[in-house]
Amino acid sequence: MSHLSPELLERARELVALYPEPRSALVPICHLAQEQDGWLRPEAMAEIAELVGVTPAEVRGTASFYDMLHTEPVGTYVVSVCTNIACLLGGAAELLEHAEASLGVGVGGTTEDGAITLEEAECLADCDRPPCVQVNHRYVGPQSPESFDRLVADLRGGRLAGTVPAHGTLARVRRNGGLRVERARVTAERAAAAEARARRQAAAGEGR
Amino acid sequence: MALTDAPRIVTSRLGYEDSHTLERYLATGGYQALRKALQMTPEAVAAEVDAASLLGRGGAGFPAGRKWSMLRPDPVTYLVINGDESEPATFKDHLLIERDPHQLLEGVLIASYALQVAQAFVYVRGEFALGLERVTQALNEAYDYGAVGADIFGSGFSVDVVVHPGAGAYICGEETALIESLEGKRGFPRIKPPYFPAAIGLYGQPTVVNNVETMSNLPWIIANGGAAFAALGAGRSTGTRLFALSGHVRRPGAYELEMVKTTFRDLIYDPSLGGGIRDGNELKAFIPGGVSAPWFGPDRVDLPLGQDEVGDAGSMLGSGSVVVMDSTTCMVRATWRITKFFARESCGQCTPCREGSGWLERVLYRIEHGGGREEDLDLLLDVCDNIAPGLTWPPAMTTICVLGPSIPSSIHSAIEMFRDEFLTHVKEGGCPHG
Ligand SMILES: Cc1cc2nc3c(=O)[nH]c(=O)nc-3n(C[C@H](O)[C@H](O)[C@H](O)COP(=O)(O)O)c2cc1C
Ligand code: SF4
Ligand code: FES
Questions:
Q1: What ipTM score was computed for the predicted complex, to two decimals?
Q2: Which chain A residues are Cβ-neighbours of B200 within 8 angstroms?
Q3: What's the Cα-to-Cα distance from A27 to each of A129, B162, B216, rounded to whole Å?
Q4: Which residues of chain B does A61 touch, with a Cβ-Cβ cutoff of 8 Å?
Q5: Listing from the earlier edge strand, what are the strands of the sheet with A132-135?
Q6: Measured between alpha carbons, how far is B401 from B42 in angstroms, rounded to an integer?
Q7: How many angstroms away from the CA of A194 is the closest CA of chain B?
Q8: Is the confidence at residue A206, as pLDDT, over 60?
Q9: Which ligand is nearest to the CA of A121?
Q10: Distance (Å, whole) CA B124 – CA B27
């Protein structure tokens, strides 16, 4: 029984096919699994491991390196407040303090209703509109303490469903170009590449 | 473009609401440069880029043409585009990815043809949900239009492009970490040598890694010729650059300016650009090229925006992001926050970086929050000196990648420029700014 839904499983297989080596699809498929479950359930990690040809421990070990991949449950909406330098100069520390008090959770915490997880983010590359806030990695503009409370109320009331999908970060585009170069050429290239690589590694005196 | 009569090279479409669509792109000359390139030989395309003397826009400023010429001939080579943009205060690639994804893709295709790569990968930081949507959508459109895939525009040249989402880790912007990450692993930088991407890169194959803005310049260069690009700017810094201006200015934003012909003063004070310091305050200091760069005081505002000009003055243009701090800024707090960033983002492979960043962060925290001692200033500089011996610029390397040796930049600058402010924190038992 697949843990991923049939639609996501098919999408995951397409992702694997995009890369010369299946393991490259590990992180993209983790994003898909989080779209379904909100976080990386052990069952999902086991299935991802199978899809990309590694052990579940390797999936966990890799995923735990990345801030956006959650190996523990999170709220429906992950609210990230950037406090890095440009945002700090624009009042981010005060905003984060307000967010903690108003949500009643500290950084990393999730509200009791499971709606909001609060994160202190590093620079989110929107530094000309400080303090920068993202919800599920969609920019929601600079926020003041007052507007922040309205934002949270709107999220809880489902009024932002159109702009901020629940959980899913990359949920809205299903195709990713695709492979159109002739199979024969790709197969020949990969074989030649494997040979060249083996020669190189033998020359370097080590395998990686 | 403001100030000089140089054309807008990478931001020409940003005035349009629908700048990200294929329709707008085609209506504004899109994919003509790719068609032109496909009628040239790959070598001739590379020669135009070399003639443009386009410097990489990702931070290190290495000439793209030279990098391409170092790619080892091999049955299979790859092109990887660095769209990880996570250097604090840098937000130019964000704009280019979200607002003109076809321009980026056209650049990627031109480079793919010049380098004859087997496949190209566009790595976009995972936090750019909309950017990923836009560039993936653009890629789908480009496939349907015949600009990507098999037999592009009937030229006989074929290449596939994949958009790859990151998942949140600053270090993945470092090119070898980016490659590890693209291989589905943790983003640990690789040791150079032997792991120079041009020799042993993605999947062990020769690989070129270039930044998003670097690629976005290519359509213009091919359309107008490398010489026209090289005629802009001066010295080694040719063309324009997209500067990301943030902090205490009236009009923060991303501004495309001709290199060298404009100065930090223009960028910060010109009414059509930064518009001056907010609230009528005074300029206290600015960071000229991302938080890895040493700071400048107001005495340096007349420096031209050029790679060598800034380098010779003891800092770097880096990622092209300028952070302005006015007279109300607490420099201890600013330094502490930047250092906290490095401590959080160190990948932990090298002892000086992993341990040093944590130490520095804790000492700065205690100075800011009232537990500092006078000896702490020497302690800070001593730890910095262990990470980058001699505290020279550019820094000496003790680590696998240059993240570690970048940590001392802000601390060293702040203590040199604002020693009294640190001492006041120590004497008054905390931050006088409240
Ligand atoms: C810690 C660290 C982070 C980096 N982050 C980025 C980044 O986010 N984007 C980028 O293009 N280059 C980044 N770089 C520079 C890359 O290693 C590489 O030089 C660049 O992508 C090459 O492209 P270019 O030659 O077109 O500039 C980073 C380097 C280091 C050491
Ligand atoms: S310098 Fe720091 S970030 Fe770079 S490899 Fe070493 S520990 Fe990792
Ligand atoms: S510093 Fe906050 S978004 Fe860049």
A1: 0.96
A2: 200, 204
A3: 29, 14, 26
A4: 186
A5: A116-121, A77-82, A132-135, A138-142
A6: 33
A7: 9
A8: no
A9: 3
A10: 26
